[in-house]
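General statements about sequence and structure are easier to judge against a single worked case. For one protein, we set the task of working out the structure tokens from the amino acid sequence alone. This step matters because it turns folding into a mapping between discrete strings. The amino acid sequence and the backbone structure tokens for this protein are reproduced below.
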Amino acid sequence: MSAARSIVIGTAGHIDHGKTALVRALTGIDTDRLPEEKRRGITIDLGFASMNVTAPDGLPLQISFVDVPGHALFIRNMLAGAGCVPAVMLVIAADEGVMPQTREHLAICELLGISDGFTVISKADLVKEDRLEQVRKNVGDFLEGTILGLATKPILAASARTGQGLEEVRDELARIATRATTAETAHPMRLPIDRVFVKKGFGTVVTGTLLSGEIRLGQNLLIEPGARNVRVRGLQTHGESEQVAQAGSRTAVNLSGVDAADVSRGQTLVEPETLAATDVIDAEITLLEGAPPLRPRARVHLHAFTSEAMAGVMLYSSEPMKPGSTRLARLKLASPIVLAPEDRFVLRQPLPAGTIGGGRVLDSNPLIQTRRAVTQKWLERLAQAAPAQQLELRVQRRGVDGIRTDALGREMGLKAEAVRDIAGSVGELIMLPGEVLISREAYSTAVDSALARLKSAGPQGVKRAVLQSQLGLKDAVFGSVIDKIIANGDANIRGELLTIAGAAPAISGQDARTLDAVSAAYRSAGLAPPSVREAAQQLHIGETEFRHIITLLIRDKTLIRMGSDDAFVHADAVRELRGRLATIRGKSIDVQAFKTLTGLTRKHAIPLLELLDRERITRKQGDVRVVL
């Protein structure tokens, strides 16, 4: 049987326009759960309900509702619910028509990028037919030019009390769920928390709308901000226990490793080493028509998903921002929030309280030391770029440092495999060992700089470590650059000494030739070098002279002693192995797995592992090694 497709629908509308009553009539669930809500007869906090329907093609559909408060005093709670929904059901009472919170709620939905939904004229039983048609016309005029003003977004009349029109509402909900896009697999798991409670016998439970990815039973996750480690003890969607929760569903997660008192709405469940909270973002912001001008360094409330924080606004130009305009800005948050590029947010002014605009995140990881004018030009290009070009721009700004695919994934809010897929389509990028991406232009600059340094060093050359320090290049980039210029015949290497091609050798005559021969023999042997006696016999060199050559090569750091006076390995082989092990950094490996990885026998594997321990590439823990 096919898994049910899930969608979360948010309600929107003015206070007492019948949102909660409509959801109750559709699902049988009263979303007003707080005693004060019952007493006052209004929705104060978020409420949740769900129902199962059947699509026209016969497949099961799961529809969840996030019922939001309509009162102006509880807009912050409304924003916490609206921030995570892909579609909205706007409710307008037939006896009152369009009211202030109708307008504000719809503006918020548009600012958040909600693109699907429909409108219900509720309490249709309270007015006569001619009044209902007049309200329908007025609502149509109000919606014109908005996300709900298209001919494909119907305006339905219904009554929660009599049941009038409820079947048409259910049909429209089914159509929305049917056309809901499948959640992208390129984004890591993210669940903004909107409710926290304790369930007797189970402990801490958090709920939210799973925006992307999936959550698995037994999975280790983090709560951000705070990087609190937790484990998934139980999962429910639509009140049913699950092994896996899929994106697009309302999800309840039973967590071990944390007390409910230490979790709150606004925090986010994420996978380790993916998304993290930030307190500085670069964004494209838009002011609503009718909002007051926004001045540089203004203080506003920023709402994103279930989170909110005070934010200082630094406009990327000095003049005030006019209503109805769009500008680039840097927002400095008073408290960190989990945000990624393309996330939407709403801005509200503190006094008088009201929604003034919103925007989308362009960069959640700004390079703080970059000049403002340079950043502005970069953001202008980024704001208009397709995903592949966005990735290219992010790699380009890293210059000769390059950036690892996993780090770029965290910066872009993507999985590392998605970054690799996109990068493969960008011809101006180079993937270096260790999965480091660098632009071709920056790589050429690094090569030219290395050659210039070697030329200036003259015949005496320069040690590898010294050259790397002079160039300021990171290991992956420097290693690739040196390999390239040697392979091209532009430079020579003897041990740790690099010289420009054509320069006189630092050691002349027979010693130089013997050094080269011994070095070449060990380099070609890789990780399975011969013993001193075997190598001396192969090269027809006396053992005493051979050991003298070995001493010189160790002094130049061309060879590395593996433990005994008879076991040496070429530094290039160790460097290459270090690069291979970097791909499993943080994981454990035993002797058998190491033998499989390297193709070595126990004779060579054991001394090599001991060398890796001494070089702090691995750390022995019992019968296994942890790759550092």
Summary: The chain has a mean pLDDT of 89.
